[in-house]
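Per reviewer request, we include the raw input and output of the structure prediction for the construct analysed in the revised manuscript.
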Amino acid sequence: MNKDLKKYFTTGEFSKLCGIKKQTLFHYDEIGLFSPEIKRENGYRYYSYHQFEIFQVISLFKELGVPLKEIKRLIKQRTPAKILEVLKEKSIDIE
């Protein structure tokens, strides 16, 4: 294995770390929500540890019932103000 790739997680490793199925990562990549940092010609995908944080944000929004389409918009155009706005709205919904 390439020395540089040892700094990354395979799809299987990343999915276990996140507690999800590999198919979820494939789906998120397919819809443009969350893609691996590296895609090799042989189809292998690699995720960095930096991506774990953004995946946690996606998981939080999903848990709060935010549709994937809306999560995608928030992630692509994220600002602290927009994220706070959505969290406040969801907080009101939960109450």
